[in-house]
Amino acid sequence: MRFVLPKGRLLRGSLEVLQRAGIELRPPGERRLVERVGNHEVLLARAFDVPVYVEYGVDVGITGSDVVEERGSDVLVPLELPFGKCRLSLAMPNENRVDPEDMDGYRVATKYPNVTGRFFEKLDVEVDILRLSGSIELAPKVGIADAIVDIVETGTTLRANGLVEVARVMDVSALLLVNRIAQKTKFEEINGLVLGIKEAIENGS
Ligand code: PRP
């Protein structure tokens, strides 16, 4: 099978959960992006791109539900995984805080323009969305945005930048993704993997 795993903070949990299910993978080393391990191939990609690889042909992937929601990729999600737990929240400078319902005309910086757009559409509030690629907390700090929608795990980054959470947009967790065609053509292998991970999670091993 071909696996695409996310670089960064979800990589360790991803390798661990697969190992507990009996699949011992080694990520590619320094600067290499593909590694062959026995019958398997491991690719490393940016977490944001994992759903795209899985939609277009890689058998199995792991990434956050935030990314899957934002990308809207056509992939199967057979399992939620027990790591990568955090939340996507709306935050703003403490001194200017308002309720999301009162944010008409506000500018919101985020890596998640689709999820953010849907959140405000549901509230019938029109905001201007400013798409950035990282260090989102900087935008309100320097005055180019009024608020942010970003990942909050411990809350340390928000506090360090004088921001407070005003609403939870979604709860986030790592997910197992499966390519639609692989689910049919590699049914036995993929079913075995899903059951193996499920059992490992249930046994807390
Ligand atoms: C993420 C996220 C926040 C921070 C939240 O950033 O975007 O900035 O972690 O974690 P905390 O609540 O524990 O402080 P990441 O380090 O992944 O990089 P980025 O800013 O480039 O997105």
UniProtKB/TrEMBL annotation:
UniProt keyword annotations, A-Z: Amino-acid biosynthesis, ATP-binding, Cytoplasm, Glycosyltransferase, Histidine biosynthesis, Nucleotide-binding, Transferase
Pathway the protein acts in: Amino-acid biosynthesis; L-histidine biosynthesis; L-histidine from 5-phospho-alpha-D-ribose 1-diphosphate: step 1/9
InterPro entries: ATP_PRibTrfase_cat, ATP_PRibTrfase_CS, ATP_PRibTrfase_HisG, ATP_PRibTrfase_HisG_short
GO BP terms: L-histidine biosynthetic process
Listed Gene3D superfamilies: Periplasmic binding protein-like II
EC class (word): transferase
GO terms for MF: ATP binding; ATP phosphoribosyltransferase activity
Subcellular localization, as worded in the UniProt entry: Cytoplasm
Annotated catalysed reactions: 1-(5-phospho-beta-D-ribosyl)-ATP + diphosphate = 5-phospho-alpha-D-ribose 1-diphosphate + ATP
Entries under HAMAP family matching the protein: HisG_Short (MF_01018)
Name listed for the protein in its UniProt record: ATP phosphoribosyltransferase
Gene name for this UniProt entry: hisG
